[in-house]
Amino acid sequence: MRTRGSHLLIFLVTLAVVAAGVAVLVAKRSRSRNSAPMLASAEPTPFRRTLPPLPVRPLSPRLKALRERAMDAASKTRGLGWVGDVGMTELSGWEYGTRTKEIAEVLGTDDLKSLSRLAVAGGMLPEGTDLASLAASFTAATAGATYSPLDKQIIIVSDDSKTGTFHDLGLLTHEYVHALQDQHFDLLKMMTARPFSFDREEATFALVEGDAMSVERRVEQGDPWQKRTLDDITREEDARFAPYRNGIGSLFPPLLTETFIFRYRDGLRFVEALRRAKPAVSVDDIFRRPPQSSEQVLHPEKYLTNELPRDVELNDEGFADAGWRLMATTPLGEVGVRGLLMAGVPVEDAKRAAAGWGGDRTFLFEQDGHAPLFVWRSVWDTTRDAQEFFAAYNTLLQQRASGDAVAKGNDSDRTWHEGGLLTRVHIEGDSVTVVRASDMDAEDAMRLALGR
Fold it and tell me: Are residues 289 and 374 in the same domain?
């Protein structure tokens, strides 16, 4: 999918697919940093495939020819054959918006609401944020074309329901690459792997979009593009997102905007880095062994050496004994940390502070009569990396607090007050622990989080 005016690639139907994955948000996975991840303990919950059929409309001769060219270009450039035919349906903008809502309802939105509550409790998103509504409305507002893994069709949006105006071969080729990916690797299965992990999910999106971006660029620009350096490609793709970042993207917190851009810009760099490695890595092989973290996407050498995130645990029983119910948990990953920090520190500083990420996990606890309790534990490659993140995160809190707010504490433990909430940040060795709760709950929560 692409924004109409700015020609930015947006495969946002997959954002709605996240809802299905959050169904087991409270499940955990246990793995060491240098060992293979454990298999998910449960199969994905079957989707309620109750979508009404798309309207049956004959394509114009022009669109038929465009479709054939796109299917041929996608197959030849990607190096995958078609297993079956993939249809294409043209919808009006209103019809597309309706379809987006239907997809969200079929996949489920209740669990995205749980993820929204976690992000709001952690101060990562504004009060009242509803990710389920954002996913549906943003997809509809930026429609151009998309591959729907539920319909197994390409959906294009016409400015004129009678004559149609869609003509973008590059975008259509991109979407047909997604159809190829689905036929050969089952996109829904990849995107709803269990247990749910925001970090791993974003890494999967980056692979899916990076692959399609690579094909699109090669189709559009040919050999000259493939001779560009990886750094040049990254700068060019980042510049392409300037209209989005300064336009509709500016309406969202950097955590959402920059994480979204990551899927395309950094996903493309990841795929190209492995295609150009010596020896080269087949993109098909990457799909058979997808990246397990956004860190592996941002640093392809860590994918090649299979460097996995460190496991982060919490004393759940201690919180349960204190009356707290665990409602949601997920790692943010390096890209999530980076996007969060961008709300209060310069972009390059945020990147540096996030680059030493070793592993993390966020937790949302709830208890009747209490404000939500947010706990975030992160581990870092070195104590210096932990200190750099500790400093950057406190800078973010200072920017978010009122102008005359001053943190209480010292170089290893700081406390910030925001209205009736208290955020406490504690660093110990290579680990940083954050607690955000009411004044009466924060001290005990930090003690439990530290295992004391």
Answer: no
